[in-house]
Amino acid sequence: MKKELNLRIEKCENCPYFRYVYNRYPEGTWTSNTEFICEKKQGYSHFSIDPGVFYQHNFLHEDCPLKDAREQGVKVGVAVILLNEKNEFLVGRRDNATSGNDAWGLPGGGMEAGEKPKRTGKREVKEETGIEIINPDIMEFATFTNDCFMEESGEHWVTLYYLCRNDNWTGESKRVEPHKCKEWRWVDADNVPQPAFCGWAENIDELKKMIL
Asked: Is the pTM of this model over 0.70?
């Protein structure tokens, strides 16, 4: 399937997992007749996207969960451990496409071409939580994870984790992308909610040494 994706899918209307629906989420206040749904990644929708985009341009939308599967190679992700004054860090509960269950992860995302890792962290934190990292250059490297999702989505990710202390960020956490993250929560290192997305929680003892 991964090979077919690479060769054939150029825009959403050609994707076998893409369809146009009405009232996909009847209880959602934002539901409209311009909503698109991806059957491969249940719960993912283009509800805020102008349908004309998919017919005027010959590319998959930037947020499509299958977009990375069209490209070969290992992807690089960046996640940020945001600490508050209590040495708690921010985690978000979101749908885990690899298991179909909710999972807890740190704010972060994929690097863009030409982007430095710490700048990726600053951008992703702002996009996902509304929090502004003041100086990404002084964030401390914490750990990394090597996560393969070849059977589920044909993806292989190496994620870099950076520590951002409480005097290096400003603002309050918000659900900037409610269709991706169900809630943000401050937790301490002894009470990490499960299951954790990717393998970052397996390195919690290593992270404790940096936090405390």
From this structure: no
